[in-house]
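Weekend entry, working from home. Most of the wet-lab plans are on hold until the incubator is repaired, so I used the time to fold the two sequences that have been sitting in the queue since the last round of cloning. Logging both here for the record. First:
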Amino acid sequence: MEKDQMIYGLEKIRDRREAYTLVTHDVVENVDVCVIGSGAAGAIVANKLALQGKSVVLLEKGGYYDAEDMNQRETDMISLLWKNAGATFTDNLRMVIAQGQCLGGSTVINDAVCFKTPQVTRDQWRQMGVSIPDGKWDAALDEVWKNIHVSKVKDYELNENNKTLQRACLQKGYLSSSNDRNCKDCMQCGFCHLGCHYETKQDMLVTYIRKAVRSPDSDIKIYCNCSVEKITYSDGVADGVEGDFVDRTTGAVKFKIRVNAKVIVVSAGAIASSQILLKNAIAPDRAGRGLTFHPASFLLGRFDKPVNAYDGIPMGYTCHQFGVTNGVKDGGFLIESIFLPILQFSLGVPSFFENHQLLMKDYVYYAMAGVMVRDEPVGTVSLTADGSAKVHYDPSSRAMKDFAKGLRVLAEMWFDAGARHVIGGHRDLFVLESRSDIDRMVKAVEENPDGLAIASAHPQGGNRMGDDPSTCVVDSNCRVHGFSNLFVTDASVFPTAVGVNPQVTVMALATLTADYINDSWKSQFAKLPLSSAEGETCSLGQPMYCHSSRLETMFNRQENSMPIETLVNKPGDWSFDKKQLMIRNNNHWKGFFTVDQDLTTMAVKYFGGFWKQFFIKDGKLAGITHPYDAPVFADNIPDMTSHPRYGDVVYLKYTGAEFAMFYDLLKIVDQDTILGKAFFGVPPNGNQILVFSMSRKYNVDFMTETDHEKIYQEHALAPEIDKVVGRWTGRLVSDSAQTPHVQTFTYTKDNFGKLQMQYVFGGLLAGMSRVVLTSEQLLMYDYTNWHDEVRMVTDDFMVGKWCSPPTNIPLDFGPSFLGVETVPGGKRFCLRFTLKRRM
């Protein structure tokens, strides 16, 4: 089979250096390995597996941008290459978190600083249950070091900013050195944060990804602009990944993807990897815990002569005296030279109005360095109501002590080096006019720690690595505990903060993970069955997920495959596959419109839903078309005919005078699937109105009110409390269409073990419900006089309804999705819904 080495994406950008193709429809891939994330870990795993003969799909949420795209303009590049355009914060807005979101991940926007994993850190991790021998660590580090072309910054490459820190360290007698960087023939432009226009920075895109894509021995496809939503699994075996292709500018979902794979590797970064695990109820009691950072705070020294710190390598020198690289075991900090392009600099300095203008006038006179603290794993990643990642983190008390010490040390160094004054990041003392202000700054940090501006580009932890499954998410091979073929490898598995810029440690860990998978392939993974699932992608077997253009093409190309008698329905022939969550309803053919998001399609979808029923009447085939929201039953007569454009089709003629100018053309795909087009005019030259599909087999997401009631009454029971605990997302049940996720129910136990539920509806209405479990169902009450009734179908699927109090007032009105039930005491409205544990 010919190998397809290609990068795919949504963005129409010309002149790609690698083979690039636009995604124009839903995608289903069947491969050996699916890797999620293309940064320091994912790129290496994908490379090493692909070059060893595995078929690989690599998924990246960001876009594919080449050196030519990286134009060194901050306003362009920050929005293009940075996650959330650089505006990612902790939940209390205490700290900004810098991360990349593009092919190559954060390696594209970092400062190329490279540290091997300190021995102190490796020893600590070993004591915490990580069983990776030093020999393997060293070999992996050396392999990475070579592949990304690491070399030490030479003295003549140090700009005045770096030299100022160097002189200050030497004057104090502090242990310090020039940095190692993954650059070849660096142009020293100073725009590392904006991607490397010259391709001298040896990031993942120009090293591991490029080699994998260009090697004739690799079998790899890379899909960009792809947001992963689901990992599907059963009994400890993961079988696939599902995601959305999302338009970067509008946020609209354009297409879907399903990747069936024998091995799945999550390498989305410390925050996103935890988010993916939590959204899919993988290690829910451990994932996202133990998040940590290297929080950093800067000091500027204002010197009499121009420093021009923007001109040259931003991070070329480090003071090691107080950090893990000098054997400090608990906490500690590094002092690293750093500088920012002018826009980022102006946004990062905590001053306003006239003071800000005066400060910016001295831009060329500043030397800048940051105190980077090694904090404890005190943070968490959790989910918001809509499934977004919520990062909770406050620096530990130990970290704040390190900040106080580190900022004192750095302020003294700047004054020793000749600074006229020093500018810091604490709101209570912005400018240090002389040495006498250092004690005031330290006191401000100690007494008002929240007043110190901090940032971090190094999120770590959350999915701790270790051999104890009760406390760790992955083992020492980065395999998720309880799974045979699901791995997480990136900074999220660090048991503690590594203490140095982490990219090389991440790369080494990914190298070890890839080697383990390759070495174990024949014995553990090769014989695993490959799923044939299609997820929510468009296909002949499930056309209800298709866009109009795709469905149009399918109709035009597909031949009618079954005799016309296949149309005949059988009333009462209804069944439910609880394992697959599939409904087979042969009472009629349920109609489906396309998934386009334009207003016309949306209106037709939600208010024009229909079914068609076919039967034998007086020895002849006849039919009825009924829209759910109208008292219309349109008689029709189906007839097999040959159409000059579409070939053999079922011509559906409406017999009533009011519908005489309408007709449908149908193609029967199989026993359960029909493609159709509706026309207005005289056949065969009528004007096409729309394209649609019909099925008598569909997923529970498309259930009708009747389906819901049958499942509620016949296939669901009152749940057990322990099985309910967790986060559930819900859809409203509509006869006409699949509705979006509109509600989130989070069930927890209070301190007394009693079940409680927090809900969010429509992203706006939030509250708590009192939960009562009866032998029949789960009841939930809030401040309204309506209540919820819920029953469990499977451990991951429930059905429910939100009902009004009964009344004797006639309720024979309202839209189809608002059902009316007769109960003791009268009639009531009920809004039906479904709940799934995983999105």
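Second, folded right after the first finished:
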Amino acid sequence: MAMEASAMRRLAQRKLEKRSQNGNRTPKRVLSGGSGGEQGGGDSDAEEGSMDEGSCTDEDEDLEVNHNRLLYLISLYNTQQVGPEDKNADQDGQDKNIWVRRVPLMVLVYEGIVAGIFDYDYAPAPDIVDGKRVYMNISQEGRDDLDDLREAGMLYGLKLSSKKYQSTVALRITTIGEEHLRRTLTQEDADAVDGVVFGPNKRHVHANLLKVSWDRRMGRFVLRCQSGYEMESTITEIESVSYVSSPYIPSCVRKWGRESKRNTDRTGALVNAVSNIKDELDENLTLNDVRLVIGEWIPMGANQIVALNDKLGSSERVQGGFFTSQVDQNPDSSEFIGISEGLTEVNILDFDETAYVNFEAEVHFPEEEGIIQIENFGIHINDEGFINYGLRCEGIMHAVQDYLSLDNLSRLLVDVQVDSSKIIDNLMSPHQRVMLDLTYLNDAEHREKYNLIFCSRINKAGVEAMPTAEEFMDREANENELKQVIGDTHASYQLSSDDEVLIVGKNGMVLCSSDTHRLEPQMVSYLSLMTRNMFMRSLFQRTFILADTLKHIRELIDTYESDPNSITTIRNLLSEASGDIILLSEIQSYLAESLQEVVLPTVPLDGAAQKLEAILNIEATQKRLVRRVHDMKKNIEGARGEVSSLRSMADVVSEGKESRVQEAVQNNTKNLEDVFRANERASASLEIMQIVLAGSLAFDIIDRLHGLYLGVAADIDWANNAFGFIYETPGMLLLVNMAWWGVLGAFIQGLIKHMGEQAAGVMSIRYKINQTINWPAFERFICRMRPEVEDGDTDKNTYIKKFTWDEPDAVLWKGLPPRIEVTVDARYHYLLKAFLQISTKKSKISQREAKLIFFRRMRDEGILTGVVPGLEDAVEVAAAESARRSTSRGAVSVVPRLSMKTWNKSTSIGGGAEGTFSAGPDVSSRNLTRAQKSSTDLPG
């Protein structure tokens, strides 16, 4: 209890200090609710308790409720009922070692705001989700209360780092926080939170808690519980406001050309403007005469600037025009059909062909009915890679020129960040896009940019005087609103007594001065360095990811025997790593060159400018960035050496596998040799047996020829008379049998040899085609051919199939039709190979004719279109087609004349032989069929 009381006193003191900085506003109640005074025992504690009990307003009650409800919400996710045998279970059978991540917690806070249980505002802000930068409706007040609870000792904070080296925070309630909830949490507060975090009509058990998960496919958060209930969160649906902006480019980057246009005459449209903001905004700070300069750095050089000026038509008589991100798929056609929405209109202001270009860009995107958005950029791009997008806010919603709300400005900044990426991505080269995708992990579309906000005055609601620099850092309403536009605030500086203030945040700065133009050179120069700093952070993070990839490759090499796919995986990863190192080295060289060319601005002599220079310290910042770039080169070179080492190790692994394969092949070859010798011996034995069987057959024929073996010699005197000499001569019958054996054996051997020669006469033709095919036509063709063999080979990338069939048309192929085997890629619809087997003994077709017939059939069936390059000659194919058509017309024209009448006359056929030819209707049809068949008996 003493620890809790001490924590309460610290938080109470901090709250009092904050409130005292806000113009003696009534202090809000702190979390202790007066308990600190009751338990502290000291005079100061008693005064604290008295203050809490006697000077509370409705706003004070809200603060206590928000803190308690937020703490209770976190506690629900920190506890899970487990079995007593669980090692993490406490005496009540609960596991309290569960941490809740900050991003899912902010989703739950947003849902609580929508449901009305938290009295917070929210505004769009980026955060890292699933390795990508996502804009969400974040409550800065909710985050501030989380910081309050951590400072009071009621929450633990755990810093985590992902595989992509992106850090996040997880939270867990402490024993002090648990004790505080037991004493102060009301049933009303608990019921309000339970209504949000538990599914509808569900028991309040841990299994029914709504868990936040990211749906990568839909690109939004989903809340679901184990019982099956789920709902989609609208936290990623960024609200839109109406505004009118004019292009703005700082004068320090202009050299010549006309001034940027102003859209002040279009602010009248804001009178009836609307927004789709669901929350009721609590506007605490407003700005006058706002100009936004948003900067980023991309790899750029003089050649890219020349190409960009050429693309923009900077040197043409009519410069600029409309640009679109839509790709022209058919540049040779006479027309292009595209939508007019989403086009970017570009007007050139001034340029140097090899150094820079300044232009205006107006974006035309469709918006909801009633929302007016005139988004007009001023864009500066130079050969160092520095890009800034400038806007002058003429009006936002119903505020024109002055009193522009930071809540609305944060929503305008989201549009500027997203749309500026779309504009410049359409103007970059493909190689630059590849480098950005590498640096930002394929999320270059949502890359981080740095915000500069210039204004002439910052107004505080209800206070006539402008707050001082110290009052902006109040850790409450003022600071929370500033966080919406520049990220986490670091410091605030009073540049002069004339309401000149500089506020520095993680993602931007706010400069308030009645004469910002004299300070622009310093601010823009510092902006260019901060954009390099942002890019360098992402690039340095990418080098660590590369190092992890190389470490993974080394592990794969050490355990390659455990995975049959390891060699392929290692080669692919090494190839990707080598490509990444080449790009990283190129990007590093662009960074180094750009930092060498930084020109430090001339500092005015007035006190505010001198103090600003001391704060920004541009020269020292530039030197630090140079050191960081050189340090990064060491990492890249180290990775290059590691890749070389890993490649050598991979080669050793491959050689080892190849040697084992070679040994296996040698063993198989030896086995095949043994089998071959055994087959030779068996073949010799078979030939001997064939001769023996031929002799047995010959002897049986002789026996059956003279008939004496029948045992009826007395009844066949003619046999005795005819063969008496042979029987009566010793050995004569044996000689006759042996002679007949020799004749029959020679005949059988010759017949076998002839059949072997007939079977051996095969012409094999292989074609490597690799052409896309009409897959439905190919499937219909294969169904008609009825293939004898169908074989498939599938992996994660391809689906290879083989079909084998015998051609049916003997006339077309001039004899025995060939056997054809085709190999196709069934996934990507490619005809890869064709294999033709033609019997040269039974077919008279040549290789050239076979090629023409095969590819002609593929075209006739609609499988292929056009001549196959490299395999066919267009002139030869055209000549063959012409000959085929002319022969077909001649054959068809002869047959009808034969069928006109029946005639009987002497006709000379062949070599002068005479005969009678009678033609009738059936004969003419047969002749027509023959004529049509003969027309196909042509090459091509």
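Plan for Monday: verify the second prediction. The chain has a mean pLDDT of 79.
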